[in-house]
């Protein structure tokens, strides 16, 4: 779906402009019901977020005791469109385990600005480093939307901008509404009686699972592709989640069976 469906001229929110953005929110909500796969839904959300100068979006579900932003069995894998360099750096360094936005999301209900977390005196230097490095990759400001479930699990949705400006309150309200609706629709996809989850793999996921199918270890795959073992394992776990497989071998077999990659 073309991003142009959602793009509007930049404008301030008062008056007719605010009404125009409200209309776009309604259009986004309506269009989600014509979507059949989580990846397509994420693409729709990403296009909608461009209305608010947010080219980068990330979503991930976490279990009650899960510290890192990794896939939860039965849910779609982490979905994000962050720059490849930052995505690989983030998981290679294990930043998902010290990301202050995740820690803050466990304690919050409403959306919050990253600047609030950065300036909080309880935030450690290691946690601030995550946000500092994100800025070097272009993610200079953002908000996080906590999405809590009844069983203690929760998801987090991040929207990021390249500029240093703060998000307007109404912008946060619109994005929070879109994130909540996205989360509810994804939950429907995760229902085994619902729509079959996506089997779309990224190019890096295909590379990693292909070498797995050829009998290579994570260490060997890392050397071949020039990435760390942690990054290899991250991509393979993503494939396992998407294939609903309990081992990398089962995931590799399923990927080959579906014709997603070929030996």
Automatic annotation (TrEMBL):
Keyword Lipid metabolism: no
SUPFAM superfamilies hit by this protein: C-terminal effector domain of the bipartite response regulators, Pheromone-binding domain of LuxR-like quorum-sensing transcription factors
Matches recorded under InterPro entries: Sig_transdc_resp-reg_C-effctor, TF_LuxR_autoind-bd_dom, TF_LuxR_autoind-bd_dom_sf, Tscrpt_reg_LuxR_C, WH-like_DNA-bd_sf
Protein name from the UniProt record: LuxR family transcriptional regulator
Keyword Transcription regulation attributed: yes
Domain HTH luxR-type residue range list: 194-259
Native organism: Mesorhizobium humile
Domain of life: Bacteria
CDD domains: LuxR_C_like
């Amino acid at each position: 779906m073309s991003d142009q469906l959602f793009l509007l001229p930049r404008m301030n929110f008062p008056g007719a402009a605010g009404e125009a953005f409200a209309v776009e929110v309604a259009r986004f909500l309506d269009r989600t019901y014509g979507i059949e796969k989580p990846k397509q839904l994420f693409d729709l959300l990403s296009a909608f977020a461009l209305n608010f100068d947010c080219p980068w979006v990330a979503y991930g579900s976490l279990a009650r005791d899960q510290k890192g932003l990794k896939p939860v069995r039965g849910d779609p894998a982490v979905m994000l469109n962050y720059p490849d360099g930052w995505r690989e750096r983030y998981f290679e360094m294990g930043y998902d385990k010290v990301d202050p936005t995740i820690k803050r999301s466990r304690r919050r209900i409403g959306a919050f600005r990253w600047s609030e977390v950065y300036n909080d005196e309880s935030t450690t230097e290691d946690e601030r480093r995550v946000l500092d490095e994100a800025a070097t990759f272009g993610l200079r400001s953002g908000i996080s939307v906590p999405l809590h479930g009844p069983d203690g699990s929760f998801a987090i949705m991040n929207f990021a901008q390249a500029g240093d400006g703060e998000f307007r309150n109404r912008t946060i309200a619109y994005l929070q509404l879109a994130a909540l609706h996205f989360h509810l629709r994804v939950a429907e996809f995760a229902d085994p009686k619902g729509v079959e989850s996506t089997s779309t793999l990224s190019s890096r996921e295909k590379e990693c699972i292909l070498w797995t199918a050829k009998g290579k270890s994570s260490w060997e795959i890392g050397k071949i592709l020039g990435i760390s073992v942690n990054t290899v394992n991250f991509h393979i776990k993503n494939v396992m989640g998407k294939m609903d497989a309990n081992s990398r071998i089962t995931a590799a077999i399923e990927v080959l069976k579906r014709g997603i990659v070929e030996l």
